[in-house]
Amino acid sequence: MQEKIVKTRTPTQEERDNYLQLSDTVFINPKDIIDRGINFLGIRRSGKSYGVGVLCEEFLDKKQPILIIDWEGEYYTLREKYPILIGALHDPYYADLPNLNPESTYQLCKFIVENHQSLVLDLSGKNTLERFTYLAKFLKSFYEVETDLRTPYILVLDEAHKIIPEKGLIRLKTLKAHQQQVEYWAYEIAVTGGKRGIGLIVATQRPAQVTKMVISQLDIKVVYKLFEPVDRGYLKTWLSTKQIDKVAAFKQGDFVLLGLDQPQFSHTKTRKTTHGGETPELKNKTRIPKMGQAIKELSILLAKAPEEIEEDADPELINRLEDKITTQKQTIKDQTRTISESKITEAGQKTIISEMRIRVTELENQQVSQEKLDALQDSLDSYKLKADNKIAGYKQTIRDLKDDLTTAYDELHTIEKYPELLQNLKEDMVEISNALGIDLFPSDIQEVMNERDEYKKQLDEANNNQRQEQEYIDTILSDAYVMDWIKGAKRKLNSFINSRTNHNLVLKKLVSSDDSIRYLPEDFVGLGVGTSTIKKYLEDFDGAGFAKKIERGKNGRASYSNNLSLWVSNNIRVMYLDAPNAVIETIVTDLKEFVITK
Ligand SMILES: Nc1ncnc2c1ncn2[C@@H]1O[C@H](COP(=O)(O)OP(=O)(O)OP(=O)(O)O)[C@@H](O)[C@H]1O
Ligand SMILES: [Mg+2]
């Protein structure tokens, strides 16, 4: 039967002795962590690092060696109570082994594993490149030592989204190379570490931020507060909507344990040492005799020049160092010879030095431009790819168009042949009908056709006449005398419009009305002019010719009508007796418009 791993009841003494206690009610079998790995998740400040710290204390209480990759320098406080070595890349006051050097990772790993020693590897205080450079070598060494010794270890990666991010955000080539090595060794440890006795604890804010290659290897989850929709979706594998709501409402330190039995809701128990990152002061750094000895031995070991510890060193490293030394010795030899041979003066040396400075600057610039060049090359490649795709698309379109064109050309050719074909057909038919002595077209059809031809002739004539008439109209309208007369008529009309106030209103009304309407003077009242004045105006218009007075025309009284057409007709037909009506109409319209728009 499968072993029950999460205890909701009061634990047995055996469990208290051998299991790891994360809270009042949650106990985890350490073997499960080694076999299956554990992942702490939660938003910022939700209590992950605190929980990881509790688990580390539990391991240390059980004398289980742990190795903490401490990106931010938060775990040195474990030293308040436990014999855990603090190694650091920089030189903080709390470090037992400060200024760690990437050349000696193998010695360091070999020593700690052989001695079942716990270690906090504090990577803070250095830049990202230095951290990754060191860590890549360290993880490789640790893995190699463990491959030989197979000592059960717990490896802790807090802030895993910075150490093994899902998206390699870093563009700098060297940095990327180191980061990929870190990812590779983390993956190796996650996948095959269990066999070597390495258990993995990984803490990160969100599951999607850490490379899936590693995160998918961790079966046990300790979930602190999470509420983003994506994260809620992630939790659906284990929890109901109601339970997910509960996770979204978690306070600091509240967690749910997943991946072992049923989900367990609980709250991280209090730590035995200070939670790091909060108090910079280390309380009672314990001086355990065994630790003192370990520190002494390690410090000596790490301080030795790498060639002195040849027997212990990584053979690959030795080879590299040997090569380096040989080259350096050769360089020194060469340089000594050059110097003695050339007997350079002091001034000459100065020149050489300044030349070398220039060369160094050049080389530095070159390195920068190499990076730029790489970045440019990358973007060039991507543009080239995009351009190639576009061009391929265009080429296809051109090919399609060509095909269409060929088809169209063929069709055109066929159509061009039709009239010729029809002509041939007609000739053939006439020949056949003559040969057979039959009428090709029956007589009644012939009659209808003749009639049609006659009408066609008449229509042509009519069109011809119309065209001739239009030409005649154009001739008249562009005749100099006619144009002069129109100008004079406009001058005359204009003199009436301008000479007296309200002349124009009466004139406008009159010329825009039908010739057959007869007006009495009072019909114009309302235009702001008195009846007798209007009568005077109308008499003037009549005198000029474009109004016509009719004695007893309306109600037995003298009345007036629009005489513009007749006036124009009389005057134009003096010049062109047969001027078509269209000429008169055109001129009348022109004059009317002239009056109305004034
Ligand atoms: N069980 C707990 N009891 C008391 N305090 C707690 C507990 N859990 C967390 N805290 C407090 O909550 C704060 C945040 O916790 P922690 O540093 O573990 O957050 P985190 O999830 O690691 O955040 P980050 O992602 O920023 O590293 C700390 O001040 C810590 O002391
Ligand atoms: Mg944290």
Topology:
Layout: H1 13-18, E1 20-21, E2 27-28, H2 30-36, E3 38-41, H3 48-61, E4 66-70, E5 84-88, H4 105-114, E6 118-122, H5 128-149, E7 153-157, H6 160-163, H7 173-196, E8 198-204, H8 212-215, E9 220-223, H9 229-235, H10 241-248, E10 254-258, E11 264-267, H11 289-303, H12 315-342, H13 346-436, H14 443-477, H15 480-499, H16 503-511, H17 531-544, E12 547-554, E13 557-562, H18 564-575, H19 581-596
Parallel strand pairs: 3-8, 3-9, 4-6, 4-7, 5-6, 7-8
Antiparallel strand pairs: 1-2, 9-10, 10-11, 12-13
Helix pairs in contact: 4-5, 5-7, 15-16, 15-19, 18-19
The chain binds adenosine-5'-triphosphate (ATP) and magnesium ion.
Give a structural overview.
The chain has three domains: 13-308, 3-Layer(aba) Sandwich (Rossmann fold), CATH 3.40.50.300; 343-440; 480-596, Orthogonal Bundle (Arc Repressor Mutant, subunit A). Residues 1-7 and 307-311 have low confidence and may be disordered. It is built from 19 helices and 13 strands. It is elongated and about 145 Å long. It is an alpha/beta fold. It has a nine-stranded mixed β-sheet with strand order 5-6-4-7-8-3-9-10-11. Strands 1-2 form a two-stranded antiparallel ribbon. The protein binds adenosine-5'-triphosphate and magnesium ion (MG).
